[in-house]
Amino acid sequence: MLMINFVKEFLIENPLCVCSEEILSVKKKLLTSDDTVVLKQATSKVVYRISQEQYFMQFVLVVPEEYPIKQVKIELEDHNFPEILKVNFISQATEIARKCVQPPIKKKPKDPPFEPQPSVLPVVKFLVESVKKFPVMCCPLCKERVLPQNPSEPVTDKRRRMEKLYCGHLFHFICLYKYIKTPPFTGKICPDCGNAIYHDKFKLSPQLMEARWAHKQARQRELDEVVDFLE
Ligand SMILES: [Zn+2]
Ligand SMILES: [Zn+2]
């Protein structure tokens, strides 16, 4: 009885011990000397500050009492990433946490019965990897970096602005635009990962793009002929 009381008290005072192995594993495998982790036992929170060059993100994981039956909650405290990437990071991390504790809507017949899984490690892994990779990610087409070296100097040239595809790779707008608007118009893939390119901004059908391309080429031929004539 004394032992049970001791365990109960210990759990009340150290609520984070339910995920201590995950926290340690993150520290050992994912963090570098630039990153910090602070445990706040009193509020059952873990605060991470992850950096890559001049970029950083500080987020808090709130570990619920019912962990791991219930998922961790992710709160963003501070960051200097472009807004669109920040929204992406947090929504994807939240989705990863949800999938740990909620069975899939469509169950495959051969799947074993669903059991909630601890969500701290998968969530932090995703966020740390994102913070580490995006600042140094190069455009698959021109091989130059997409995010500016200095986060407080946003890209002013609209043609060089960032575009994120569904596969997760970053491109310069102009590189992607030229790539999509030149033939062949079907079966375009991301040169980095081989996934089909899909982007809301470029919804033209292959037929329409083909027609536009032919039209542009014809115009160019006419112009070339005029030049030939004048020379
Ligand atoms: Zn590029
Ligand atoms: Zn890709």
Automatic annotation (TrEMBL):
Domain of life, source organism: Eukaryota
Every RING-type domain range: 139-193
GO MF annotations, alphabetized: zinc ion binding
Keyword set, alphabetical order: Metal-binding, Zinc, Zinc-finger
A Pfam family the protein falls into: zf-C3HC4
SUPFAM superfamilies in the record: RING/U-box
Tagged with keyword Zinc: yes
Protein name in the entry: RING-type domain-containing protein
Protein source organism: Mytilus galloprovincialis
